[in-house]
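Hi R.,

As promised on Friday, here is the backbone we talked about, encoded as structure tokens. Could you run it through your design pipeline when you get a chance and send me back a sequence?
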């Protein structure tokens, strides 16, 4: 119940909607929450320690999650049986765990925290972006500061949770579909990528970070590929792991998994992640899809590129930390909004309609 309440507070807070860098909004949304503010520091530990200590319970949990997903998640592609965690752990716990979850086994899972803008610790060891995220995601997310934390170091739970809320954008869901490059594309059973814009290297993660759950049945009938997205399933996976980690005394990974799940819930608060073409009415959507089915796909492709470009601009034209971070910003331009006045300071009271990410 405590975990559910924490998640609800995370997702309802307007400052958590700063989705380009999920860490910034998460810090400010959660910093006054007593469950985090008053929590004791947690001890950093590598993933393998949690896996080896809780391996039998993790096997049971992932099997239960797979059964639930097959029954309850629409258009869910069943996990191939050969990806099930073996009853006896192998010598490569991390790889087996990541492939059983069907996430990119090449992610770094670096032990780092992100500080709030203006609160960096330059005396601490930092990791470069390419030590934290895979190559395909470097372009939009290469401005953060990553402070390395060591095994057994005590860290504030808020720092772990807020930092982890950004992690799924570091490569978790890159190149998982059968028509993507890479070693796991043909193994995971997701089939061809249902949507995305190939101009952007990180577009293959889109179906795990976008969900179009509130469209007209007519839209789904005409464009069934829109139902092939699973951010809710990803959140479900990570929340279950968080519960297990907390219950077994691995609080560092409890907060880290919780942050991963929070990321996907936050993504669904962003219009360009929750609507296929924001601002385009049903008749226009149907006309675009009808033309595409008739062999005239130029309009549909142009619309996809326009949405992807607007999303990219909103990620990249703002300064680091400009979303609810209280840092001074100059003239910030968003493809969806008029420029803000020079010198505008965004605070927790700033209406969401002025946020550059909206």
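Update: got your reply. Pasting your designed sequence below so it's all in one thread:
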């Amino acid at each position: 119940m405590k975990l559910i309440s924490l998640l609800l507070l995370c997702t309802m807070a307007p400052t958590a909607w700063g989705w380009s860098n999920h860490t910034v909004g998460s810090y400010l949304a959660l910093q006054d929450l007593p469950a985090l503010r008053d929590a004791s520091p947690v001890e950093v530990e590598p993933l393998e320690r949690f896996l080896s200590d809780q391996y039998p319970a993790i096997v049971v949990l992932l099997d239960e999650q797979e059964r639930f997903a097959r029954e309850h998640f629409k258009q869910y592609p069943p996990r191939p049986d050969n990806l099930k965690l073996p009853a006896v752990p192998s010598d490569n716990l991390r790889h087996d765990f990541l492939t059983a979850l069907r996430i990119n086994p090449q992610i770094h899972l670096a032990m780092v925290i992100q500080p709030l803008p203006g609160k960096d610790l330059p005396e601490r060891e930092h990791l470069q972006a390419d030590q934290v995220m895979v190559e395909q995601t470097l372009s939009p997310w290469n401005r953060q500061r990553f402070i390395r934390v060591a095994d057994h170091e005590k860290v504030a739970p808020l720092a772990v949770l807020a930092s982890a809320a950004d992690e799924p954008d570091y490569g978790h869901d890159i190149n998982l579909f059968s028509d993507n490059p890479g070693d796991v594309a043909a193994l995971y059973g997701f089939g061809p990528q249902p949507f995305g814009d190939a101009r952007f290297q990180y577009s293959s993660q889109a179906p795990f970070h976008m969900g179009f759950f509130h469209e007209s049945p007519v839209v789904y009938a005409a464009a069934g590929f829109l139902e092939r997205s699973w951010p809710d399933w990803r959140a479900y996976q990570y929340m279950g792991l968080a519960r297990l980690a907390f219950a077994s005394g691995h609080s560092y990974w409890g907060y880290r998994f919780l942050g991963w799940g929070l990321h996907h819930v936050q993504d669904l608060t962003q219009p360009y992640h929750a609507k296929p073409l924001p601002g385009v009415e049903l008749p226009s959507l149907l006309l675009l899809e009808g033309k595409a089915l008739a062999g005239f796909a130029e309009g549909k492709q142009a619309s996809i590129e326009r949405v992807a470009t607007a999303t990219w601009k909103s990620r990249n034209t703002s300064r680091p930390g400009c979303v609810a971070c209280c840092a001074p910003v100059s003239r910030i331009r968003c493809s969806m909004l008029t420029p803000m006045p020079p010198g505008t300071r965004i605070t927790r009271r700033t209406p969401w309609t002025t946020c550059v990410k909206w």
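One thing I noticed while checking it: Residues 1-18, 316-358 have pLDDT under 50 and may be disordered.

Thanks again,
M.
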